[in-house]
Amino acid sequence: MEMIKVKAGDILLAEPFMNDPNFKRSVVLITENDETGTLGLVINKASLFRVNEVLPDFPKIQTQVFMGGLIGLDKLNYLHSYPELIPESIKITDNLYWNGNFESLKKGIKDREILPHNIKFFIGYSGWGIGQLEDELKENSWIVKKDYHGIFKDSRYMWKDILEGMGGEYKLMANYPENPSLN
């Protein structure tokens, strides 16, 4: 079996029976994968907080903060589609960018040029050391999806919806119970 090469912009879907509570039924967007390791953001685990509750002096915007992972919980990351308004953004794919100049972000929100449906905020990120993600892929802990363009969509059913959309065996996996012993 040929090993799938994961790149920025790919997403990882946790296999249906993953027991790790931090990644159970999670969807992780890969933001960076190079010789030093892999970084990503869990894009479907909303926290109970809105951005203005986390950053009280931040311009008003009605959007939740997501739990991007357990690393760097003191940092706010964001995905957006505003490279022209937020310089220094890192391009992930066409029309998807990561972070950038924070003052420009605040100005764009204040001026209502940056809208809630094209930006997503995260506390923390997920990370894998050299070879760690490859080992997890060999163990079938993750399902790789290429070319996913629904980052800003409703996240409540994202894991299930993506698997169902992949068809075949994945459509079946989408309906596996979280705990088969309760079935």
* Poorly predicted sequence stretches spanning 5 or more consecutive residues: none
Question: What integer value in Å does the Rg equal?
Answer: 17 Å
Instruction: Tell me the helix content.
Output: 10-25%
Give the helix/strand class: alpha+beta
The span between the termini is: 32 Å
Architecture in CATH? 3-Layer(aba) Sandwich
Counted beta strands: 10
Overall CATH class: Alpha Beta
Order of helices and strands: EEEEHEEEEHEHEHH
CATH H level: which superfamily?
A: VC0467-like
Q: How would a crystallographer describe the biggest sheet?
A: 10 strands, mixed
Separate helix tally = 5
Q: What amount of the residues lies in strands?
A: 25-35%
In short:
The chain is an alpha+beta fold and 183 residues long. Helices cover 19% and strands 32% of the residues. Strand 2 and strand 3 form a beta hairpin.
Features:
single chain; 183 residues; alpha+beta; VC0467-like; ten-stranded mixed beta sheet; 10 strands
Give an overview in words.
The chain has a single domain, classed as VC0467-like (3-Layer(aba) Sandwich). It has five helices and ten strands. It starts with 10 loop residues before the first strand and ends in a 10-residue tail after the last helix. The longest helix is centred in the middle third of the chain and has 9 residues, at 102-110. It is of the alpha+beta class and 183 residues long. 19% of the residues lie in helices and 32% in strands. β2 and β3 form a beta hairpin. Strands 1, 2, 3, 4, 5, 6, 7, 8, 9 and 10 form a ten-stranded mixed beta sheet that branches. The protein is globular, with a radius of gyration of 17 Å.
